[in-house]
Design a protein that fits this description.
The complex is a heterodimer of chains A (83) and B (496).
Chain A lengths: L1 E6 L1 H7 L3 E5 L9 H8 L11 E4 L2 E3 L12 E5 L6
Parallel strand pairs in A: 1-5
Antiparallel strand pairs in A: 1-2, 3-4, 3-5
Chain B lengths: L2 H28 L7 H6 L28 H6 L1 H4 L5 H10 L1 E5 L5 H11 L3 E5 L24 H12 L4 E5 L8 H5 L4 E4 L4 H14 L3 E7 L2 E7 L8 H4 L12 H4 L4 H19 L8 E6 L4 E6 L26 H5 L20 E2 L1 H10 L4 E4 L3 H4 L8 E2 L9 H15 L2 H14 L15 E4 L5 H11 L5 E4 L2 H8 L8
Parallel strand pairs in B: 1-2, 1-4, 2-3, 4-5, 9-13, 10-11, 10-12, 12-13
Antiparallel strand pairs in B: 5-6, 6-7, 7-8
Helix pairs in contact in B: 6-7, 6-12, 16-17
The chains are: A alpha+beta (83), B alpha/beta (496).
Family (chain B): In the N-terminal section; belongs to the HesA/MoeB/ThiF family. UBA4 subfamily.
Protein name (chain B): Adenylyltransferase and sulfurtransferase MOCS3
EC number (chain B): 2.7.7.80, 2.8.1.11
């Protein structure tokens, strides 16, 4: 099944795209999400631990496990500090 | 004494009584003010408060029956939002009695300060330690060409007063520090984070937690923006709830290096002003527990629902380690791994031995006397495209390893230029095989001189080290980079 991933700010630069499709096995949970993302976009490792993930526009706490379904929308949101 | 004078006195007494009633109402609702109370704020809001002798005077004015306390001038000035169905006189009155501290009079603070002054916020505090530079003005639109070199808080205050002389504008010219943050934040009702660096963002959030003030946090870089309200109500999270780990310094791009499209902080700062108006007036739904993330290159606004504050949060949790008492000792530089840098240049570093570095003036002499010399410019494309020296090889440091082949090729070609034809083939072979240091049979000539330049002389040192690691060990760094060149050699060279 495919989920949609949106990259914001620095994650967009590192991934080289603002939007992507991530193929996951049916029935995967959010626990599978991060390793799969890092595999497809290894440069994201540069973010270290400092970013927020959202699932269908809701904050996804680190370590929280939810079952994903096809068409879900994930966003990678690192903090920005400029002004 | 004329009749009009007495009328004026009566009107002022009525206003004062109305303000006192509002003050009493607010005190009974929120508790007595800790430091500067709303009545003092109102003194700058166009109403003249007397010494309290008139508190018992009932309002004789027929137009002031509802206790909103707005003057005729205020009603005229703010009429378009007062007549707004969802806003009205009470909301306007709360704005006129309210106070906002804007931390940073830059890209975010510029529109925020102008809109809040225009909207009639009774007391505006403007904090910034920097002076206006020409390169600020494309986004920091509160400043003008005439204010280049002027303190940003002073310049911004001038603009706010020009827009609305009836409000009180206060300037804070010092930096926000752990020592002064809580005390400063306590003096205002709502705080705007319009700062430009990670350590200050954590400091502001912690101070707002400790002082119990809502924080309108905006950020912008490039074409991206973020906005939310932290520390709001009983369960609103703080910056640390969301980002407990500080971002790596390399991921905190600053406007001076990464660039920012001027209108982007303009949009986010304007939204910050809106959130402050909502918080002060009580109208609308503040953006608490929601994070607005904007990819403005794509024209995409993404709102993420956030959790309530984390019980384990060190700043706003059930047993916070960071409190008003402990905050002044907290080391924000150590936590974030970066100083509270502003829009200024990074410190010049000394990363490689002095003998591998030359001054821009020496570079000029050597380029003139060494026709085969190769110059490598490691700045990002955007900067290289502004202006570069003739013949410079462009090899951005960000992806330096991808450009090593091009540098090798240029060295080989330069060896052909600077040396007699028979030796050139041997030299070229040697360099392509293993780099410039490899001597094939004792007759190989020294490789062509190689100079590396960047914007200011830090990345170029890193590039010289990277070249050495790749087997090209004769690279020489140009101290001070192209900015040094512009200072020492060619003052016509554009800087940015």
């Amino acid at each position: 099944m495919d989920v949609r991933v949106l990259f914001f700010a620095r994650s967009r630069e590192l991934a080289g795209t603002s939007e992507a499709t991530l193929a996951l096995e049916a029935g995967s949970t959010t626990a599978a999400l991060l390793p799969r993302l890092m595999e497809q976009y290894p440069w994201l490792a540069e973010l270290g631990g400092s970013f927020v993930l959202s699932l269908n526009q809701e904050y996804l706490a680190p370590g929280e496990e939810q079952v994903l379904k096809a068409g879900d929308e994930v966003a990678v949101i690192p903090p920005i500090s400029g002004g | 004494m004329s009749g009009s004078h007495e009328e004026e006195l009566a009107r002022l007494r009525a206003q004062n009584a109305a303000l006192q009633r509002e003050c009493d109402r607010l005190n009974s609702r929120f508790g007595a003010p800790a430091e500067q109370g709303p009545l003092q704020a109102a003194a700058g809001g166009g109403a003249v408060a007397s010494d309290g002798e008139a508190t018992a005077v009932a309002s004789p004015a027929s137009w002031d029956g509802l206790g909103h306390g707005l003057t005729k001038d205020q009603i005229a000035r703010y009429s378009r939002q007062i007549v707004l169905h969802s806003f009205g006189v009470q909301a306007q009155s709360r704005l006129c009695l309210g106070s906002v501290l804007i931390i940073g009079a830059g890209g975010l603070g510029s529109p925020a300060a102008l809109y809040l002054a225009a909207a009639g916020v009774g007391r505006l505090g403007l904090l910034d330690r920097d002076e206006v530079e020409l390169s600020n003005i494309h986004r920091q639109v509160i400043h003008t060409e005439a204010s280049v070199g002027v303190h940003k808080a002073v310049s911004a205050a001038r603009a706010c007063r020009a827009l609305n002389s009836s409000i009180q504008v206060e300037t804070h010219l010092e930096a926000l520090t752990p020592a002064n943050a809580v005390q400063l934040v306590r003096q205002y009702d709502v705080i705007l984070d319009a700062s430009d660096n990670a350590p200050t963002r954590y400091l502001i959030s912690d101070a707002c937690c400790a002082a119990g003030r809502p924080l309108v946090s905006g950020a912008a870089i490039g074409t991206d923006g973020q906005l939310t309200v932290y520390c709001h109500g009983d369960d609103g999270p703080c910056y640390r709830c969301l980002f407990p780990e500080a971002p790596a310094a390399g991921n905190c791009a600053r406007c001076v290096d990464a660039g920012v499209l001027g209108v982007v902080p303009g949009i986010i700062g304007t939204l910050q002003a809106l959130e402050a108006v909502k918080l002060l007036s009580g109208v609308g739904e503040p953006l608490s527990r929601r994070l607005l993330v904007a990819d403005l290159a794509a024209g995409r606004f993404h709102a993420v629902k956030l959790r309530a504050k984390s019980p384990a949060c060190v700043a706003c949790g059930s047993a916070p380690a960071i409190t008003a008492a402990s905050l002044p000792q907290y080391d924000y530089t150590a936590f974030t791994g970066q100083a509270a840098a502003n829009d200024a240049a990074p410190l010049p570093l000394q990363l490689i031995p002095w003998e591998e570095r030359i001054t821009p003036a020496e570079l000029q002499q050597r380029l003139a006397s060494e026709p085969g010399a190769v110059l490598v410019d490691v700045r990002p494309a955007e900067q290289y495209n502004i202006c570069h020296l003739p013949g410079a090889v462009h090899a951005p440091y960000k992806h330096f390893s991808r450009h090593l082949d091009a540098i090798q090729e240029r060295l080989a070609a330069a060896a052909g230029v600077s040396l007699p034809p028979p030796a050139a083939a041997a030299g070229q072979q040697g360099q392509q095989d293993g780099g410039g240091t490899e001597q094939q049979d004792g007759t190989a000539p020294p490789p062509p001189p190689l100079y590396v330049v960047c914007r200011r002389g830090n990345d170029s040192q890193r590039a010289v080290a990277a070249l050495r690691a790749a087997g090209i060990s004769h690279g020489v760094d140009v101290m001070g980079g192209m900015e040094g060149w512009a200072r020492e050699v060619d003052q016509g060279f554009p800087t940015y």
